[in-house]
């Protein structure tokens, strides 16, 4: 239900997929290091990516950008008391994202901002459907986020959603690109 949960899940999935891709490439390296032809004999261009590399790249672009967004949204608009779960959901994700940017060799492309935007659009659609169906938060509150209060001010809620999708996410993706460029 909550955006940090979605984002932490995508960050976890990205990390697991990155590990799996790394292990697969490491295991294949002995075979392909001395061969021009990959396993199975098919001829593949040396600069082409497999489907799992592409999936990893999409997850990387989405999880890193969204981690920065969630941390900023929380500390700017929704800050509550500092408890371990809050630290885990709203600080650890960005720390892991920065570490990933500087340690991994995954490139960041500006055009890839479409992936976090698509992810956020999916969350926004889910949020609106959840709200319209009468969904509530942990304490039974109808409004999960004050910025997106469709009950009392639907125009402002829509404006904030549009700003998030088409201003905030591109900004954080450009920040991700800039941090990656520092390497």
UniProtKB/TrEMBL annotation:
Organism: Branchiostoma floridae
Protein name (record): Uncharacterized protein
TM regions (residue ranges): 57-77, 113-133, 157-179
PANTHER family hit by this protein: MARVEL DOMAIN-CONTAINING PROTEIN, OS02G0130600 PROTEIN-RELATED
Keywords: Membrane, Transmembrane, Transmembrane helix
Source organism, top-level taxon: Eukaryota
């Amino acid at each position: 239900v909550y955006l940090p949960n979605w984002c932490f899940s995508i960050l976890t999935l990205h990390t697991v997929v990155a590990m799996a891709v790394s292990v697969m490439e490491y295991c294949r390296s002995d075979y392909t290091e001395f061969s021009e032809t990959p396993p199975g004999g098919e001829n593949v261009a040396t600069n082409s990516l497999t489907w799992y590399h592409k999936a990893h790249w999409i997850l990387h672009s989405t999880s890193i950008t969204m981690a920065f967004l969630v941390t900023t949204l929380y500390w700017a608009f929704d800050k509550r008391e500092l408890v371990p779960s809050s630290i885990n959901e709203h600080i650890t994700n960005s720390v892991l994202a920065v570490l990933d940017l500087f340690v991994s060799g995954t490139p960041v492309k500006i055009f890839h901002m479409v992936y976090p935007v698509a992810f956020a659009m999916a969350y926004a659609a889910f949020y609106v459907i959840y709200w319209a169906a009468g969904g509530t938060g942990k304490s039974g509150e109808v409004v999960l986020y004050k910025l997106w209060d469709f009950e009392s001010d639907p125009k402002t809620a829509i404006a904030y959603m549009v700003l998030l999708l088409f201003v905030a996410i591109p900004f954080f993706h450009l920040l991700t690109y800039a941090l990656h460029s520092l390497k």
